[in-house]
Amino acid sequence: FTLAIYYLKKCIQPFIESDFYSTLVISNWKKTGNLFVFIGGSTIIIRILSVLYFQSLIPTEGYSGFKIAGVLTSSLDITVLFLIIIGLFFLLFSNAFLNAKEFKQDSDLTI
């Protein structure tokens, strides 16, 4: 998470200089998005595995639909989903700025 914030911090200076279509900004947004999605996804997987492990320590009669639903709902948290959504937003934003950079280069060549 700290590394993702560091990549976002590196984007501030090009924005101040109005260098929106810099490859540095685009690559840092892509790295930040990938890290946020990775953090959210890995947190969900770790929570699911830990709940399943702790439930295996308690003797029960197999897994019913309610137990599996309980595992899934206990592993999904609004903060984890928020991290995944923010990560997808940064990935979308980096693709949009990459396309805008290509369109800007094309328009600069035609003038």
Describe the structure.
This protein has 111 residues and is mostly helical. It is 84% helix and 0% strand. It has helices spanning 2-10, 12-16, 23-57, 65-75, 78-110. Helix 3 packs antiparallel against helix 4 (65-75). It is elongated and about 75 Å long. The termini are far apart. The mean pLDDT is 84.
Task: Tell me the radius of gyration.
Answer: 21 Å
Number of strands: 0
Strand composition percent: under 5%
What string gives the helices and strands in order?
HHHHH
Low-confidence stretches: none
Amino- and carboxy-terminal Cα gap: 43 Å
Name the features.
mainly alpha; 5 helices; elongated; 84% helix; 111 residues
Short structural description:
The chain is built from five helices and no strands. With 111 residues, the chain is mainly α.
What is the element layout, followed by pairings?
Elements: H1 2-10, H2 12-16, H3 23-57, H4 65-75, H5 78-110
Helix pairs in contact: 1-3, 3-4, 3-5
